Every structure is written in C-alpha cells, then in structure tokens.
User: Fold these one by one.
Assistant:
Number 1:
Amino acid sequence: MLPGTLSRRRLRAPRAAKAGLSWARRDHPATLTPKRGLRLYATAAAVAMLVSVVYLTAWPSPAPARPLPAGLSRLHSGLLVADPLDQSVTLGQLKDQYVLDGSAGPKLGWASESTAGLAVGIKAHHGWAGWFASTIHAAGPAVAWHVVISPTALHLGTKGSGLAVFAVQTATTQKSGVINYIVVAADSRSGSYRWLIGYAHGLVAGASTKVLWTSKWQPVPGNSTLLASQAVTVVTDGAHSLSVWFGTDRIFSSERLVLKMPAPFQAYLEVQSSAPAYHARFNDFWVADDAPLVIRGLPEGSRVALTGSTAGLSAAATAKSAAAPEGAATLRLPVPELVGTATVKVIAAGSVTRLVNVPYAGGDVLNWAKPG
C-alpha cells in the first residue's frame, strides 16, 4: 500500500553514489554521508519514502560536553548526539552535521536553523516532492532516536497534502541495495491532520511501505500556522522489534515484525508535499544508548535515587557490590527520558547527599567519589 521511493538527493561531491528509484531517478553521492530518498509519497491511498546510505558506523566525534558536579566523573558516555536545534547557524555550519537533499532539489527545497528550531521546507510546486536533513553518521541498533516535530497546518481549501517525517533507516544501502526504514509522520490535508507509524523494506527501485498505526483525523485548530508539537522517540533492533513513543506514552510496540533493517541506522528530518508550500520545525534531536544509567564507587548497600525536571521521571536502585570493593547502582530510565538533567540523591550510613543539575544519558557510567 505505501509504494516505495520517489526522491532525488544530491549529496556533496566527495560522497557520491548512484541509485535508481521507482518513479524518478536520483543521484546519491555516498562516501561519508547518510542518504535516503523520498520516504512518504502520499496519494489518497499511498505514502512513499526516501533513501540514504553511509559508510560510517558510529558518530566519530566525542559525545557532547556535559560537565558534571564536583565529585562525579563520567567513565563512559552513552550519548551519541544531542542537538537542541535552537541556534542561529549558517547553512555551512548546518551542512557540517546534516546532509540536505531530496527530490525537490535545491531550488524548491530549503532548510535553516534558528532559535526557533530547524525548519525544513518545500516551496509551492507541481507533483510530489520531498526535502530532508539526514544525519551524516550512523548508530544502532541498541539506541533510542528522539526529536520534537512541529508540522505545518494546511487549512480548509488548501489543495494537496503535506507530511512532516521522522525516519530511521538502514545505513547499509550502498552495499545491500535495500532502503529499509521506520517512519513516523504527520499527514496534513485540507483542514485536518493525523499521525502515522510505518515501515518499509525492499530494493531502492521498489521498496513498499506498510502502515502499522494511525491516529484519527483531527481538525486544524483555528488559524494555527504550526500544529501542536509532538515529541517522538523510536527504538528498533532492525529485525523484529519496534516501539514508538509520543511524549511519554508508548503508542506502538511489537516484537513480531519482519523489518530486515541491517544496522547501523541514520535519522531523517524531512517534509514532503504534493503541491503546496510546506514546512515543519524540528527541535531537541538526540540519540542515546537504550541502556541503564550506572553509578559506580558507591558504598555497598547505599540507596540511590534520580529525579528529573520532567514530570514523572524517577529511578531508584540499591548499590550492590561488584568486582570492585565498592558498589554500583543500575538505574533503568523511561525510554523517552533517556537524556536529560536530574537530581541524584545517595543515602548511605544515615547521611544524604544530593547533587543537582546532573546531566545524564542512557548508557552513561558515572563514578561517585564522595561528592561534597
């Protein structure tokens, strides 16, 4: 039902490879960048997707600097990337982190980052077209992908459709020829919109997409330009497992899919449109290990609690002795809350120590050196 690919992207010169797509051809420069073509091609009954390729299998640069309070040190970082997308940057700076491409071409497709977020858009045109910002590097499979999406509202009487897309795709297309991916999208039409979750697998020239979940159609509120923002978190093993959260609510989960998505993966922040000018805004993009937070160096038997600024975030554990003479506490965090800032409280031998504004991420290993 959701036919395959319809995008043409031109990546930067040293990174070039060619792949033919159904409905249209696109040239992909390849070597060190991720690539994908149009992911969602929508008609009354269909949505088509994009394609991408990368040679790198991990973010090569260190995780973003996250200073810790005195007495805590970070032995291992589980944070692969954390980009709030809230800075005014030049187009050149944006291209240092993302590939900008799509079937719309640079005359119609555009992207810019400001304090309001990363805006990705397409000018008015004829026929289906897409434009995206994709990560240059790849990660996974044992990671969580997160972004906040603010789609454009298309008011009553607007001709055509628009989609705001967050996609996680295999980065092995260059070698395998497949463009398998997960997609979460806001589908906007004349005066209404809905959200959908799906996946696709197949060769570049003929991948097919299957919708797994859709919300009900909702009316566009008032004269809104942008629809309500939606925080989206995706975790997949690329084989059978997929879970998607909207905010802190798990909207979809299955362990029985046939995804055929070889790791590593890349992320795509994109829009697609059948004719009207359309754009979406993206904020708070992060990728982190889907793993517990571990604090070492604690007195055995001490009680550890972590509470975050986000309502409902809490985790607690009792430090247990491991190979080292001092204990380690393992804190399992809600997936949508795998990255943030929290207060850490340690209760040991009747005394309580609190550290505030502790930046954390899933997979972090911290060492407690009796702060304070």
Number 2:
Amino acid sequence: MDKCPTQTWSWIKCGFQFFHTVIPSGADHLEGDDLRPSHFIDSVDIVPVMSVPFVIEEDRMRATAISGIFLLLAWAALAQTPKRTASGVPSGKAVLKTYVSAWNRHDFAACDKILAPDAVHEDIALGVYAQGIAQIKDFMRKVIQGQPDLEWRVSRFVESGPVVVAEWTWTSTFTGDSPTGPVKNLRVSGRGVSVVLTENGQIKHLTDYYDLPSFFRKPPMDAAKGNK
C-alpha cells in the first residue's frame, strides 16, 4: 500500500476510518467496554428494544455504502495515475500518451516534465528536427497555429524496454501550405507511426513517420460527389 498515490491512499483511509468511526466493531473494544445498544443510539429510551438490532444493521449498511463510495473514489484516482514500472518510473507507453495529451490540450508547460532536456522530436515528412525542449515547444506552437483543433489519437502500442512504437491517427482543420499549395480551413486526416525512446520516465527521442500527401487526399465518396 505504500506505493499507492497519495490521493488514492487518502481515499482508502477515509473509507475505513469512516466505517470504524460510525459503526465500531467488537474488535475495537476492550474487555469491560459498554457494548449495550445505548452505546450506538442516543435516545434509547424512545426506541423499542426489538428495533435496536435493525437500527444498528441499518447504520452498518449506510456506513458500508458510504465507505464503498470512498473506495470508488480511490479507484478513480488510481486509474488516472500513469502506470509505472517496478522501479517507480512511468512506462514508455504512459509517457507517450501523456505527451500526446499535451499536444491535444495545447499544454506547453507539460513538456517541461515529459521531455528530457536534450530530447528530440523528429518529423520525417515535414523535415523537422527539433532538439531541446525550447525547439520542440516552438515546433508544437507552429503546428497548433495552423491546426488549432488537432486531434492526435494513439491506437496501438508495441513496447520493449525503453522503446515504444505506436500507431496513431491525426485529424484537424488545416490552414497553411499543403503539398498542392496554400489552403484554408481544410479538413485533413491521416495515419502514422511514432518510434519513441524513453529514459528515466521522459522522452529522449521521438520520430514520426507518415505520408504527408495522403492527409490531403479527398475520401472516395467526396471525390465522387465532386465529379458529378
């Protein structure tokens, strides 16, 4: 349990503490403690004796339900935590997903933690070789400027040690120079692959491979409509 994230461990402790505080169990008492129904019910004089077990049982059910809510919150917090290896370092897959998320959210600040100081983001199709966090942020800024609604979605991963290979899709509304000339507000989409080298939970080198002209080709249905 020591390896649980702080938020997750806090929710778990809250759940168990709530249950034992509201409904003490026999193990919580020492010999000689008062375990009569009045220990649990403030106004015992107005509660029929036969109803006492049912009141206690109702409190137990209520406490169990609320404790379950705390544990669900703990599970949710754990699910949002990047998966880590046995050494405590995030896996290459988790690191890449975090980097992709930063692009989608236009979160430049996140790059400071995700990227190694001398990291490289290489885009073969665009002829870009951005080295260092500052250059990578500049490359990211230029792409977002021309494609502000970009959606970068990673679908498949192959991971071996510090190396991750991922297949992805990219969609956006593009404004700028295309392989066939300048365009404005053109919907584009395509597929590609990234090969990533990670080190100590950060991206060391990322290379993107894709066919740039294919992003600007009209789908067959659209092309057929244009010929009519």
